[in-house]
Every structure is written in structure tokens, then in C-alpha cells.
Amino acid sequence: MISARLIKTLEKKGFYLEFPDYPNNEVIIEILKQENLRLNYALSLFLDSFDYDLILSKLNSSQKKEFNKIIIIAARIYKKEGIWSNLDEIIKNNKIKAYFSKEEFEDYYSNFKETKIQTETSSQKIIEKQSKLRLNLDLNKSLKTLFSPAKIKIIEKIFNHEKLTNSELKYYYRSISNINKAVLNPSLQDYLRLIEISKKFS
């Protein structure tokens, strides 16, 4: 099994692994069995789809009571957020009743909102990292097309503001600078763009 530490290390480098989803029913049961209030706040995130009877059959009486309360809280949160769910139907069909304070509802609601924001932010960061990785791959591919490994090494030193040796500096002006100027020439870019366009119709 891949450790969480290794997964985090890979993600920092822009490498993301895809894993199968953990079924909602299993997540809900596992969280409730922990009997941890902090973990219970997460349950409202998993109540968009679940098997009520199956979950209830796996819980003791206190866990069932907690689950029913969270279902009613989640139903109110979903309504407030404009999220569709069948929680009202589950509550009605199973005659679910529970008491909770206004403060308790606000705690669940604020945790729900905070988690949603963090999820959206995290997703955006992943997209940005993946885009950056793709750009780096494209850049490296283009560099390898134009330059030898020795030339790329010198280019990278310049990019990272590292001082070149006298021989590297001479090599840059003799073998790299002219290629750079050619690539940056707008007339050449326009000419090659026309070549690429014309090639499609030839």
C-alpha cells in the first residue's frame, strides 16, 4: 500500500495518483463508529448518496441517534446551499426525529462551508500544478529539439542566475546566442507559422 507520506511527496512534485472512490456507505459507517465529534462534522459531505437501512444495521443505538441527527442537520444545510438531495424523503419515510441546538447547527454548517471552500481551493491548486507541469514538459521538449544537453545546461544556468565560466560564456555567444536570436525573430515566427498553416492544405 502506498503511504500517505509518499503520496504527498509525489504531489509536491506535480505527480498525482488516481485512486478509486471510497464508497459513501463505508465512509459514513467508519466515521460514526469512531464516535468522534470532530469527525462527525465531515458526515454532511457524504450524505448526497447513501443506503440508510444498510448503514443503520451496522450501528449501535447511540450511533444511530447521532446519525439521524446529522441527517436532519445535513438536510437543512443542503437546502440552505441549494444542493439537491433526497434527505427530506429519507427523513419522512423513516420518521426521523432529533433535537439539536442552533449553535450545533451553526457548527456543522460552518464546517461544511469551510470544507467546501478548501476543496475548491485545493482543486484549483491541483489544476494549476498540473498545468505548470504540462508547460514544463512542453518547454523541455522544445528545448531538446533546438539544443544539445550541453547547451541546455548553460541555458538553465543563465535562467537560474548562476555565473558562467569563461569557456561557457564563449560557448554561449558562439553556439547558443544566434539560435536564440533566430527563434525570437518575429519575421521568422510569422514565416514558420505560415509554413505550418500551408502544410495542412498541401
Task: Walk me through this protein's architecture.
The protein has 202 residues and is mostly helical. The protein has 2 domains: 4-125, no CATH class; 147-200, no CATH class. The protein contains 10 helices and no strands. The chain has helices at 4-12, 24-34, 37-40, 52-56, 61-81, 87-93, 102-146, 149-159, 166-184, 186-200. The radius of gyration is 29 Å and the shape is elongated. The two termini are 53 Å apart.
Write the layout of secondary structure elements.
Elements: H1 4-12, H2 24-34, H3 37-40, H4 52-56, H5 61-81, H6 87-93, H7 102-146, H8 149-159, H9 166-184, H10 186-200
Annotation keywords:
mainly alpha; single chain; 10 helices; 2 domains; 202 residues
Shape: elongated
Run of helices and strands: HHHHHHHHHH
What is the total domain count?
Answer: 2
What structural class do the secondary elements suggest?
A: mainly alpha
Biggest sheet character: none
Question: Would you count the extended β strands for me?
Answer: 0
Helix content estimate: over 70%
User: How far is the N terminus from the C terminus?
Assistant: 53 Å
Q: Estimate what percentage of residues fall within beta strands.
A: under 5%
Oligomer: single chain
Number of helices: 10
Radius of gyration: 29 Å
